[in-house]
Amino acid sequence: MLMSQQFASTRKDVSEEEVSVNAQLLTKAGYVEKVMAGVYAFLPLGLRVLRNIEEVVREEMDAAGGQELLMPALHPKEYWEATGRWGGLDVLFKVPSQHGGREYALGPSHEEIVVPLAQKFIHSYRDLPQYVYQIQSKFRDEPRAKSGILRGREFMMKDLYSFHVDEDDMHAYYDVMKIAYSNVFTRCGLNAIETEASGGTFSEFSHEYQVVTESGEDIIFTCECGYAVNREIAKVQSGDECPLCKKGVINEHKAIEVGNIFSLHRKYSDPFKLRYTDESGVQQPVYMGCYGIGISRLMGAVVEVHHDDKGIVWPEGLAPYQVHVVQLGDDEDVVKSTQTLIKKLDKVGVSYMYDDRKLSAGAMFADADLIGAPHRVVVSDRSLKNGGVEHTVRSSGDSKVIDIAQLVKEL
User: Fold this and answer.
1) Which CATH number applies to 323-410: 3.40.50.800, 3.30.2130.30, 3.30.565.10, 3.40.50.10260?
2) Residue 136 and residue 384: Cα distance in Å, rounded?
3) Cys-Cys link to 351, which of 61, 147, 321, 335 (CB 3.0-4.6 A)?
4) Which is nearest to 38 in space by CA: 105, 91, 103, 113?
5) Is residue 117 exposed (0-12), middle (13-18) or buried (19+ Cβ within 10 Å)?
6) Which tens digit of pLDDT belongs to each residue from 18-37?
7) Is 168 exposed, middle or buried (0-12, 13-18, 19+ CB in 10 A)?
């Protein structure tokens, strides 16, 4: 991509209302633009990051047996009345129709849609288990949208729903998803702590995946042995002896929740009378689990963790472009070498941004650091005289002059 043709440019200042690190950096670097409280437009760079995160999630959900579908965001009121959540969920957006006095819900989650859908296809024990997921915009009428894209009124989410013959099968898949979630967050460059949390009205407990950072909204208690619990259900406090290993000391952390998993049991299958026929011909209840990852929230969490005083530091697999190419000067050799570099990058499939603007070196370097591609490559008269191009790794700051062919091979 040529930076001279980029739809959204970088900027130095953002609104004073944007106090979170992710909102400030993503706005300054041209990834997002706030439309209103809790609602952001994802600009071309931001959408590329979202798509990269989606692909990581999609690969892990597929590997866990998930089948992707897409359900509507607009829901019939009667489905939400059947589960009691039409009047019981305080963040539900309710949309009146201009015709016939009907009302609809904008989906904050999709239990009320996926269960009636499953009814049409799950009839026998032979039809189970099933695992379906989607990646879609969700809507929640949050009383206080805050922290940039960490807590919004419209956001992108992956939700997977599993259907089982009994509790044992449900719990077995729950463990499969624990591994899948660990894989997702590791690939996104995050150390997400599996944290015991309230199960709400579904079960005794659930599990959240929490990333420790000072910008977090949650408080968790952890021990080095792996024990972790959300403060909402904790029976320990900082400094206590760990109840699991009996050796370690409990520590308190602020953290961002980036995913959660629930055993739904029959919470939603019973209201819709979702049943299957067992091998003896007897009708049995279907058990369910649900597993959510906030895609846009995950993007914000990555920025909160991976940044420095210059800008964003994207992990390799999430960056909108892997290489930021900076051309200094219009000397014939510089132009020719830059074109050689980008042609070679194209040939091997390495994505790149090409800063072809007529700006000072300092301005281009500052933008490269702000945008945060993992690799910066500078082509200049000086670098060519020294044997090639200057390659800098964004995360470490390590820099070297290297031959173009060798650089492309390493990338």
Assistant:
1) 3.40.50.800
2) 47
3) 321
4) 91
5) middle
6) 889 999 999 999 999 999 99
7) exposed
Distance CA(340)–CA(327), nearest Å, equals 12
Of 110, 217, 91, 96, the C-alpha closest to 154 is 91
d(CA 266, CA 252): 34
Category of 29 on φ-ψ map: left (φ > 0), alpha (ψ -120 to 50) or beta: alpha
CA distance 399 to 377: 9
Written as six digits, the tokens of 68 are: 């992707």
Residues 6+ apart with CB under 8 A from 210: 192, 193, 195, 216, 218, 220, 228, 230, 253, 255, 256, 257, 258
| CA neighbor of 220 nearest in space, from 249, 194, 254, 256 | 254
For residues 275, 276, 278, 283, the Cα torsion angle rounded to the nearest 10 degrees is 40
- Determine if the peptide bond prior to 320 is cis (ω within 30°): no
**Structure tokens of 106?**
């904008």
Tokens of 308: 């420095």
> Which residue bears the tokens 């963040």?
91
Q: What secondary structure letter does DSSP report for 373? A: -
Length of the chain, in residues: 411
- List, for residues 350-399, the tens digit of each pLDDT value: 999 999 998 999 999 999 999 999 999 999 999 999 999 999 999 999 99
